[in-house]
Amino acid sequence: MAIKSFRDAINEALFEEMRRDDAVIVLGEDVSGGAGGTSGTRDAAGGIFGVTKGLIHEFGEDRVIDTPISESAIIGAGAGAAAAGLRPVAELMFADFVGVCMDQIYNQAAKFRYMFGGKMQCPLVIRTAMGAGMNMGAQHSQTIYSILASVPGLKIVIPSNAADAKGLLKTAIRDNDPVVFFEHKALYNKKSEVPDGEYTIPFGEADMTREGDDCTVVAIGRMVPFSEKAIDHLAGSGITCDLIDPRTVSPLDTDVIFESLEHTGRLVIVDESPPRCSIASDIAGIVASEAFDSLRAPIKLVTAPHAPVPFARELERAYVPGPDRIAEAITAVVRGKAHA
Amino acid sequence: MTSLSTEQLMRAYRRMKTIREFEERLNLEIQKGEIPGFTHLYAGQEAVAVGVCEHLDEQDYIASTHRGHGHCIAKGCDVIGMMKEIYGRHDGLCKGKGGSMHIADVDQGMLGANAIVGGGPPIAVGAAIATKLQGKGKITASFTGDGGSNQGTVFEAMNLAVVLQLPTIFVFEDNGYSEHTGARYAVGSKDIAGRAEGFGLPTEKADGCDFFAVYAAAGRAVERARSGGGPSALEFATTRFFGHFVGDPQNYRAKDEVAHHRETMDCLKNFRARVTAESWLTDDQLDAIDTEVLELIDAAVEQAHASEPPGPEEILTDVYANY
Question: I want to staple A270 with a disulfide (CB 3.0 to 4.6 A). Which of A191, A295, A302, B44 is the partner?
């Protein structure tokens, strides 16, 4: 084990997979950076958050492709290259930009296999940075994964820590279906233990990072470390929880949630997205229809409000669910005050 | 003089004739009510698909449009499998799950008809990233109509192809109409190739009803792409003999326009006139192909008619490789 940042773990996965398989390429805006600049320096950016740093020096311009700002062309070309035998990792600089290339994601890549009778595969990975917390405002801070999780044909990965990010990205690159890989911007600098050597993490297998008796907490992405903080705090007052990190929301490991609920009977779902048609409401719906008998209390959702992400520090801080709100929600559910 | 051998000329004619008869027959069969959904016919534009695809082999890729039957046939897709697909049969080219607007056959380098106008060019550009990296001299082409030429995806794809100097060809087919609206209205500059030129692409315009003109222009673009000279764009003026889809009353066209175009802009008639005048092929040879094609289309309709739809278990297959 070594301590690495979320960013470095993803960077390492890219290096390892590109060395392992010549068919893996990276394309996107500024993935190297510096092309056409006056300094002649390449790798001037290594991606806007530095995640693809260094790749161009080892793999060259044919496999680390700086593109114009043309998201439709980036994702569409990624889909076409995947259909023609490559394993492209396309970087969509911010998840919010899904709006300018939605067709290429959900009408093209997601549907090739099905529309064409199983004869075409599209092993495309779309890496994209998401989430609030850096005062980037309404068009650079969203967590829009629920929109894409609703599309059959796509797999949706949301890692919450460095070790998972590395193992899940390697699985994504080797997977034969299109995968959208959401990286929370506020996690890039967060360091944690990463196993040495080769490993992958299968899709559809949740991780349980805390175990307890009173409540099941399901948290997504950055909400996992926030929930850990809340749960660890509550342990002092005698409330213990299972904490489930689905890691992939499509496919979703419902078995682990159902099993945990049989034991705890109470469910809190923590999601940074607004509540309507969210992963939180989706999980709540699945539990209500398939595991109702396990519930001893109403399901509680801890989400952002039904509003765009605000800019001002104070507003954004209030917008994003934090450890305090999560702890309050758990306490309310356990103390029988879920509607309070 | 032509650089085409007798065999090549016969194959080109056979493919154009196959497209024509496939579409003429579909127009009749659809009106009987057995074929589900929307069908957009390519009749009238055959010289474009065939004139381009005669330069390609199965390892070269094309991306097509909602009006894609012609591109499929020109690229070598199985005609019987296509007909079954359009009928929604289990043994269609895509198991009956794609239909007319979603026919693909990767083994033939056919990356799919595409029901999203302007959806194809980014895909062909991506396939060109692959063929360039694979280094086998293989190229890609996208077909786009005058309507699709107005889509931003196409502009993005052209720019990216120029930036990366990819082995791809943007083929624009101006059949005069973007759905129910004239190209002379919807293409603001009236000059699709001119726009492509603005993106830095070498371009050519030619008569899309003249197979030999298409073949010559496409040949130069293909040669450029194969030899590492980068992308090109071609604009062909052509016509469609039917409406936007089967059943379109076409009240946006002058009453005698289609009849007039069938008389004056028929690429098959033009082809026959040219090859017989030049003594490259005889009427007997062409007539024999006509007979052969009609038999093939009869067999395709008969087999499609007789085949079964997919079973309900197929709803959930092929969504993912694994899930």
Answer: A302
